[in-house]
Design goal:
171 residues; alpha/beta; Rossmann fold
Length: 171
């Protein structure tokens, strides 16, 4: 995939339990979905045609859904980077349904490991960063996987659009 980095964008953001709002806060969720749609459109205008989601609850799945909403009009693809088989087994039913919908509708799925292991999420994050030249994220400074991915992306020289402050902002 490295030969397609210039047209590949990855997503990273918080799982639902770390977001600064609840999944049932429809106004905030809609606002984030609108920001994601705008960011994906802007990326498409810059020549990005491939979008990789890590498929976790919250931001990743909202981002994947955005790509699916805009796919036909923008001629873009959804790529799913699944860190291990059965990733969604412990998801609440609503998120499992979203996961399955996105996975089945994806243009390509990368299953990175047959089973969970310590470090499989970090390996997924590295895979996404190594395959991309743009990161669209939701990062407000909290430690964890999103922070790790943003730092990886910075070190690798990716452009970064951060949606955490409600604006499309390039680092």
């Amino acid at each position: 995939m490295s030969d397609q980095r210039s047209e590949t964008c990855c997503f990273s953001g918080y799982r639902i339990e770390k977001m600064p709002f609840r999944a049932d806060d429809t106004d905030r969720v809609r606002a984030l979905e609108t920001s994601l749609d705008h960011a994906v459109r802007e990326a498409a205008l810059l020549g990005y045609t491939r979008f990789i989601s890590g498929m976790s609850t919250g931001f990743d799945l909202w981002a994947a859904a955005s790509v699916l909403r805009l796919r036909e009009a923008l001629h873009i693809q959804l790529l799913c980077a699944v860190p291990f088989d059965r990733q969604a087994d412990a998801y609440p039913p609503e998120w499992k349904q979203r996961f399955n919908h996105c996975l089945l509708a994806a243009d390509k799925v990368y299953a990175l490991s047959p089973r969970f292991y310590a470090g499989c999420y970090a390996a997924r994050n590295r895979f996404m960063v190594d395959a991309s030249s743009l990161l669209i994220c939701y990062f407000d400074g909290q430690p964890g996987g999103t922070a790790q991915t943003v730092h990886m992306a910075q070190k690798a020289g990716l452009s970064i659009f951060n949606l955490a402050d409600g604006q499309l902002k390039l680092f």
